[in-house]
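Thread: "does anyone have the structure for this chain?"

Original post by V.I.:
We have the sequence but no experimental structure in hand. Need at least a predicted one for the grant figures.
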Amino acid sequence: MNVSETSRHHCFDGWQIFASHPSEECGVTMRFSLYLPPAASRATVPVLYFLAGLTCTEETFVLKAGGQRFAAETGIALAAPDTSPRGTGTPGADADWDFGFGASFYVDATQAPWSEYWRMYSYVTSELPRVLAENFPIDPERQGIFGHSMGGHGALVAALRNPGQYKSVSAFAPIAAPSRSPWGSKAFTGYLGEDRARWSDYDASELVQRARLSTTILIDQGLDDPYLAEQLHPHLFEEACRQANQSIVLRRHQGYDHGYYFIQTFIADHIRHHARQMSEAG
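Reply from O.Q.:
Generated one for you, tokens below.
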């Protein structure tokens, strides 16, 4: 598949790449960023996918989180897709900041007009890994996934629905029970319809009761996060994991909010968590 590089920047002896390609799933040109560590010049390397949150793009994580230093140290590539299709001409796609452009919730939409382009679940779990493996020194057998907020939701869902695909999973302040969140309820109604039974396929707190992962899920949550009580509900996911006997480490941090200063503080822990899990999985 044809990939067009927009730019390439030397970074910690590796390369930070911004690129795009025509997407079969989403029906438009999709953008992504990819950091290749120095080890990628000698052999294929594991890849860690980061799914960003509401209003973000493929640039947000790589510009704000500071993960390249630790990816270079551990020999892991960092891939970050855009958070939705763009330029679709879909009516109303830019009307709300929490729905439409920049707000895919990483689902495959079933409701018109969203179902034509909003297929981000399949894009993230199937098409993008194939594109990267075909065009870069990426080992498709060693994948991990993590994300923030809406993207933390997406990462948990991707891992729980594909337990053999990802060797590791973690999240920063995820929307952990979206069916019981105003953000999630709005998105699921618009993209999936009124039938709440369909929502369970994209709700980590429900999915974990169906599919247990062999790896430990790492979650970091700031206790000064303004969205904690109404939107995120990590305690519901924690309890669902306990009932399902799913290994989880949920760390709560006084003084930290929902933003990228919080992510910067703990990004090294997450990348090293993924490096350990990938190494243990072989």
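V.I.: this helps a lot. The two ends are 29 Å apart (CA to CA).
O.Q.: and Residues 260-281 form the longest helix (22 residues).
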